[in-house]
Amino acid sequence: MPDLFQLDLLLPDLFLLDLPLPDLPPDLLFPAGLLPLPPLAMGIVCAGVAVAYVIFGIAGFGTALVAGPVLANWLPLSTIVPLLALLDFAAASVNVARDRNAADRSELRRLVPAMLAGSAVGAAILLLGQPAPLQLALGLFALAYGMYSAIGWRPAAAFSPRAALPFGVVGGICSALFGSGGFLYAIYLGRRIASPDRQRVTQSTLIGLSTLTRLILFLLAGVYADRPVWMLALMLAPAMLIGTTIGRRITLSLPKATFLKMVSVVVAASGAALVWRYVAL
């Protein structure tokens, strides 16, 4: 089992980006003494989390791309990773509870076993090998696919149901290694499901199951014995709920072509994050 120093492998290294945020004196930042973060920082983090979960509400994944760099200005990765796991699981659960009948269960039956198998393989690679070459290859693939899709390119035909096996396995591996498997599920589901809302709910269900695996890992590692993680999760829950609600409403009003283009942009950004992480190693 990876120790806490290996948890940084579970999120893209966009967290290493420096944001131009104000450098304020401690007496202004820490007047209350009751918040897990300074009041001004908490406001910035809440805004970033809300925007991140608007993206999640639309695409069903991608929160780390926005929330990660913001949180990294005040929190270590050993806190960010389990915090976002809690929020992602809660957001996915909310989406599934609201629209559980909209999920494509036949696609879930194809993808979930493959995803679980891939997660086991990814955990083994994390413990025994060097995942960097795979990270670069997947990042370049996602970046290229997302960019081509965003400018209007589409495969000529829908994917075969058999494609669930490679996409599920590689998505599970990528989730276990980098916390970034959602873009692969999005590519597959985008060529299998016509309805944007049905695709969003199915995607959220997959992310929820994937995140549950990470939650169990963190529980076994004792990560959630850290009280500030729970305090932050509870305080950020309203921002998460607001973001997912806005994202869901946007999705319901979007034409399918616009929805697919937005998902393609998030896929490309996920690929860029993996490439950035490889370059930063």
UniProtKB/TrEMBL annotation:
UniProt keywords (A-Z) are: Cell membrane, Membrane, Transmembrane, Transmembrane helix, Transport
Origin superkingdom: Bacteria
Subcellular localization(s) per the UniProt record: Cell membrane
**Transmembrane portions of the chain:** 40-67, 74-91, 111-129, 136-153, 165-189, 201-223, 229-247, 259-279
Could you name the Gene Ontology cellular component terms for this entry? plasma membrane
Query: In what way does this protein cross or attach to the membrane?
Result: Multi-pass membrane protein
Is-annotated flag, keyword Nucleotide-binding? no
The UniProt entry, under Pfam families, shows:
TauE (PF01925)
Q: To which protein family does this belong?
A: Belongs to the 4-toluene sulfonate uptake permease (TSUP) (TC 2.A.102) family.
Q: What PANTHER family does UniProt report for this protein, alphabetically?
A: MEMBRANE TRANSPORTER PROTEIN-RELATED, TRANSMEMBRANE PROTEIN YFCA
Q: What is this protein called?
A: Probable membrane transporter protein
Q: Which organism is it from?
A: Pigmentiphaga litoralis
